[in-house]
Write a structure and sequence with these properties.
Order of helices and strands: EEEEEEEE
Largest sheet: 5 strands, antiparallel
Distance between the termini: 10 Å
Oligomer: single chain
Shape: elongated
Strand content: over 45%
Radius of gyration: 16 Å
Number of strands: 8
Amino acid sequence: MDQSSPEKSTNMRFGYDFKLPEASSEKDEISFKGCTWYYGVAEDDLKNTFSPDKTNFITNPDKKGAEYYRSNIVFTNLSSGAYKRSVYARILVKYTVNGKRTQCDGNICRFKIRQHDR
């Protein structure tokens, strides 16, 4: 939800859907552990990092299936001067396989900051 009028600033939520790798055997136990987000204003310059201690997520987004996860990054108080600029983000998904930590990168995604109607 916006913190002020959309003429001054807005918030933006970007959701990323992903699946964890499939187990290579029935004995494998795979567990989601969190996400780190890299973002910036150019695809080759993702110099900002957001790595929360705890990642909020949902499973089965849009009824895609129980094996799908969705995590969001929320940018707050973006000034109106940023409207129509492109932002690029990449997610690093962290998980364990049989207790051993591992991770995988997601694709870089581009999205536009835009004012929305209330």
